[in-house]
Amino acid sequence: MRTNTKRIWTPARIGIYAFLLTAAAFFLLPLYIMLVTSFKSMEEIRLGNIFALPMHMTVEPWRQAWSTACTGVACEGISSGFWNSVAITLPSTLLAIFLGALNGYALSFWRPRGSQLLFAILLAGAFIPVQVMMFPLVRVLAVLNIFSTLPGIVLVHVIFGMPIMTLLFRNYYLGIPQELFHAARIDGGGFFRIFVQLMLPMSLPMIVVAAIMQVTGVWNDYILGLVFAGREHLPMTAQLNNVINTTTGTRMYNVNMAATILTALLPLAIYFISGRWFVRGIAAGAVKG
Questions:
Q1: CA–CA separation, 182 vs 106, rounded Å?
Q2: Which of 39, 46, 129, 250 counts the highest number of beta carbons within 10 A?
């Protein structure tokens, strides 16, 4: 028994655990400070000990951040931004996943002439900085009369999500046996019938991966929402910026911390709930090809 214990706690293993614990503390420390600060009153914050636990815990900063914090001239909190982000994220995710799966399916099984070139162009699009595309997209959306509208910002997110969605589903479908596709063709299945009745039901692990990536990217976006969403549909991140950068009155650090955590709550919840499926989806084919 003593021999097994020595074998487990080798210097190398202790070093690995020490590194992992240090890395975890490094990334969790800012979250801890934000969390404890959000439950303190301003009088307690002014004492200066940012690492101390709250002596008199209060949820008033959270209530203010959600419903009464000032974002510019309006003092309605970030609740309206939350629903704007939901309205932007939901169609942006569903459309991007559907079109990405359709592209991946076409490029994997049907392979029309020039499919490799088209795939290379799509991949190149993933590496173009957002700032480079900003002015052309503004002009195009203005011509289409959807600039500063909800359909406009959804279209922009779908366009920017398309390269990585196509890459994920193409690589996943490359791992599916071609014999399955040929059998469906012999049974009379056409392009869309095979896609809807055969490929999509088999794509659940990759759909989970794609949904996590797209939801996280769209929800955390700031610059695209600020430029393309319009004043009526500003996402939660833009309103969070307005709350934190308000220059009038006393700077409410506890409200700012609560608003920041509220903004990041949905992506955090998705990661915690679906992390296991995310790893399975990645292992199932996201890194192939």
A1: 14
A2: 39
Q: What is the mean pLDDT of residues 57-67?
A: 91
Virtual torsion, Cα 225, 228, 233, 239, nearest 10 deg:
40
Of the CA atoms within 13 Å of residue 74, those in its CB half-sphere come to: 14
- Burial track 126-148 (b if 16+ CB lie within 10 A, e otherwise): eeeeeeebeeebbebbeeeebbb
Q: pLDDT tens digits for 29-38?
A: 999 999 999 9
Q: Which of helix, strand or coil describes residue 265?
A: helix
Burial label, 288 (beta-carbon count in 10 A; 0-12, 13-18, 19+): exposed
Question: Taking a C-beta distance cutoff of 8 angstroms, is the pair 199, 279 a contact?
Answer: no
Number of alpha carbons in the 13 Å side-chain half-sphere of residue 183: 7
Say what the pTM is: 0.83
Give the span between the Cα atoms of 220 and 202, in whole angstroms: 29
Give buried/exposed letters for 49-80 (b at 16+ CB in 10 A, else e).
eeeeebeeeeeebbebbbeebbbeeeeebbbb
Task: Confirm if 48 and 36 have CB atoms less than 8 A apart.
Answer: no
| Per-residue pLDDT, 289 | 45
List the structure tokens of 142. Answer: 């203005």
How far CA 162 is from CA of 68, 141, 233, 259, in Å, comes to 37, 18, 22, 31
Alpha-carbon span 94 to 86, nearest angstrom: 12
